[in-house]
Amino acid sequence: MQPKINGKMLMNSFSQRFLQLSDERSPLCLGLDPSRALMRDWGLSDDAEGLHRFWGVVMEAAADRIAVFKPQSGFFERLGPPGLSELAKTVAKIREQGALSIIDCKRGDVIDTMEGYAEAMLGPDSGFGADAMTVTTYLGFSALRPVLDRAANCKGAAFVIVRSLNSEGCSVQDARLADGRTVADALADEITAFNTALGDGIGPVGAVVGATVKGIAANVLARLSRSLILAPGVGAQGASLDDVRNNFGPAIARTLPSVSRSILSHGPSPAVLRVAMDRYREQAWRACEAQPSI
């Protein structure tokens, strides 16, 4: 029997839903990044009304094309409470269209505070109702426990930043521990240990590994055999779907390649947005088919 939260029947786990949607809609993740520049380029007012029009057009264009949407919380938060209200409406629309939502908020704090963030973001009874959220671990992996536990209990997901795109993060992520592992390697090991303790298969704790990362990514990915991999950086940030296939190897079948500006720049025409979406989703399908899964 499926578990319930506050009387609401839960579906399969995030990973199971993603793998199904990956077959139906492609594994592509579309980042929703309504920056001030994008709103200007679309001819929209930089306020809550403009945000509402933005996500309405994107969701109209997407229909049943996109498996996962990743609204960037900062671009909604910058407009205060009205922006946060639009974030909640966006997540609700994503759910209505049968897709998965990842709120990209990169929260990372002490345990008590993380409990608040978990209740705000994750699950059908949370403030925003998202299927997943992104988190950071500078205060320690164990401090994330409220988010990780809630993700497991509500069949959602938490994506932990392991190897990011920005060069500024390398000095921390590549630092060596006393046992010789990098910080990124050790974090990957902790993620896998958490997922393994819950049983076989892919667990609720995923990892963020930048799509442009080369070389070191293979070692990190080998340590994440029980995780989905969120791979931002496709398109305007420099990575192609071929790069993702080559860099991620057999982990590609568990990977959510994420693109934002290279699709959103084609708005505000829904028809033109659809063409861009279809082009990237076809490329994502081909990338996944080119490698065996692990």
Please describe what this structure looks like.
The chain has helices at 14-25, 36-41, 48-62, 73-77, 80-96, 111-121, 145-153, 170-173, 183-197, 216-222, 241-248, 261-264, 270-289; strands spanning 4-5, 8-9, 29-32, 68-71, 100-107, 132-135, 157-163, 205-209, 229-234, 255-259. The chain has 294 residues and is an alpha/beta fold. It has a single domain (12-289), classed as Alpha-Beta Barrel (TIM Barrel), CATH 3.20.20.70. The strands form two sheets. An eight-stranded parallel β-barrel has the order 3-4-5-6-7-8-9-10, surrounded by eight helices. The two termini are 28 Å apart. Residues 1-10 and 290-294 have low confidence and may be disordered.
Question: What would a concise description of this structure say?
Answer:
The protein has helices spanning about 15-25, 35-40, 50-60, 75, 80-95, 110-120, 145-155, 170-175, 185-195, 215-220, 240-250, 260-265, 270-290, and strands at about 5, 10, 30, 70, 100-105, 130-135, 155-165, 205-210, 230-235, 255-260. It is α/β, with parallel strands linked by helices and about 290 residues long.
